[in-house]
Model the fold of this input.
Amino acid sequence: MHTSFDTPELIRRTLAGERVPLARAISWVENEAPGSVELLDACFEKSGRAFRLGITGPPGAGKSTLVTRLAQEYRRRGETVAIVAVDPTSPFSGGALLGDRVRMTELSGDPGVFIRSMATRGSMGGLAVHTAQVCDVLDAAGFQRILIETVGVGQSELEVAQTADSTAVVLVPESGDAVQAMKAGLMEIADVFVINKADREGAERASFAIRSALELRAHTAWKIPVHLTIASQNGGVSELVDRFEEHLVFLRETGTLEERRRARLEQRLQDLLQARLWNAFRERVGDERWREALAELAQRRRTPHQAAELLAGL
Ligand SMILES: Nc1nc2c(ncn2[C@@H]2O[C@H](COP(=O)(O)OP(=O)(O)OP(=O)(O)O)[C@@H](O)[C@H]2O)c(=O)[nH]1
Ligand SMILES: [Mg+2]
Done:
């Protein structure tokens, strides 16, 4: 299926929510294809309506299963849903693929659902940027809820989770998870805690441990819920959607949504400007001068501070 689109047509049909152009548009963004900037600019104007939910947590916690159930529940409530699964290039990706396959069959054929997997491809800094951009495209295409699934194991994955408006951290009952979560920095980004696999021993205990840890922290206006689910049996899923929607109302009413989005946009602007200014600067300095400066450093003829001062003054 190698239909080629010119940029205006692709933009028009993506914004109209057509699936094949939408899939192509996302590939453009991922590959930074020519035309992708024009596309993103067009999408940006139309985005900002979707509620973006990050679902993160350790490998195998049941994120994919849960996201599938959440999508089904949102569909029952009449909302359209896009799923962005960010696959880690790790030994666990087999599990992710399996989860995705199950999901594909359960949700296929529903025009109100769109599923997309994104590969991490090593370049980790770019992943959060690409995820945010892909979400802009899905948002502009009219999807009302965007579920971003990512494994919460590293800083880069946390960055992906933070492109969302609201973030759910999914854990399992096995002891040590609460401690792990705190270590991994998941505690700081959670707006909602989920203990999935609550059919297993120790779910209540894990829930209590997290609640206790949360109580030790500074009091906040949003009381972070700790919610039990059995995703594989659809247990507690509808109530979890209620929690998400409550959080959305909270975010809107307190101005926190606007605040978070503004901070995110500032970050994006800063990233773009940094790249642009750096490239311009590097070009102005030129390769020869750059090599000279490095040689001077290596020979201890100049300090890094002196070299920076000198180059910046050029
Ligand atoms: N017992 C039990 N098993 C579950 C539950 N939810 C999911 N599972 C199972 O847990 C396994 C992992 O589920 P996934 O949904 O693929 O987990 P994941 O967090 O997406 O995994 P990765 O993407 O590989 O990190 C699968 O075998 C699921 O069937 C649950 O509530 N209870
Ligand atoms: Mg998964």
